[in-house]
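Q: Hi! Curious about what Cyclohex-1-ene-1-carbonyl-CoA dehydrogenase looks like structurally. Here's the sequence.
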Amino acid sequence: MNFNLSEEHKMIRDAARDFAQNELLPGVIDRDENQHFPAELVKKMGDLGFLGIMVDPKYGGSGMDTISYVLIMEELSKIDASASVIVSVNNSLVCYGLEAYGTEEQKQKYLTKLATGEFIGAFCLSEPEAGSDATSQKTTAIDKGDHYLLNGTKNWITNGGRADVYLVMAQTDRDKGSHGINAFIVEKGMNGFHVGPKENKLGIRGSDTHTLQFNDVKVPKENRIGEDGSGFRFAMKTLSGGRIGIASQALGIASGAYELALKYSKERKAFGTEICNHQAIAFKLADMYADIEAARYLVMRAAWDKDQGKNYDVSSAVAKLQASKVAMQHTVEAVQIFGGNGFVKDYHVERLMRDAKITQIYEGTSEIQKVVISRSITKT
Ligand code: CAA
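A: Let's find out. The predicted structure is below.
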């Protein structure tokens, strides 16, 4: 067992760290305040290869492994979790979904542009009445010969108003349950496709979240992904990888808050000494350090499983469950260490605390991760 990062992995991590410090940090408070989507920064991340990290270079990707992906995600998320969710959805859900399950034509037409950042992708599974209960899709896609007719509503879609390509799950045969669901590629601007108003969110406010409406959208037959009826399994498999991305986002949020709290505790004085010298603060920092280290190993384990071609459904759920719990718990502690300053936007930790919450909700709530884990460990 080797716990050391390779020199290449260290270089990738350092490049992401530099980008986050130099490019993401300067405007992050303003983007959060004004719900401003970082379009220019997304373009720069595309140029750096961050939008197609694991995609084969023959489709315009960076050809890196999942360990590299989580290292990049952690560094971006320390500074700006709104930027990192754009990276995570584009990589894990859209690029991976197309590369693993798309036809060669679909890869040439869409993946090559998504991997370079020329296009942005969105993943559309959740509905007003089908969030955790993802098999209960109400969106329908009726087979009309050379095309499907798509009708329905999708909710809380990351990159919803900014994407060029949307992977949309829909029921094609309700009687078949989860085997009657298909995944489709829908393009921005198709007739009958409407983007609803932007959500006003608690956290990750720089990311772009919308409800989408599909009214008789004609989706060409060749835009279905995979075999007929494979859409639910496509969504589940893709989400397993997505959970590695969100676990690394949660890890980054936690470690970003920890680094800020540690630095502050060495500068801020109370009762005649730096506050890190008070055990009340030192023990908080020790707990943060230990929990973040543990979460990091779980995230790395899930990434390693994926890179080794092992099943990562459970290890990704474990990593997401733990890392998101650590992110929520310790961003609250970071605010506490900062005291009154922690409640003020200039010090960043209140934003990290707000951003942490979504990591316990999207790409499967913590309860859903426990469903995945408990089903696996109690199976006879
Ligand atoms: N890989 C492949 N197939 C899988 C699978 C996986 N990981 N998980 C389930 N399946 C298959 C099952 O084997 C089963 O197939 P068979 O019928 O052939 O046996 C089929 O899918 C149905 O599975 P279940 O019976 O387990 O389905 P269920 O209704 O009990 O649901 C669930 C299982 C785990 C609760 C699932 O519904 C789930 O994960 N829900 C959460 C959905 C979610 O994560 N939504 C996030 C939205 S996306 C998002 O947030 C993106 C963003 O914008 C940031």
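A: A fun detail: The chain has a mean pLDDT of 97.
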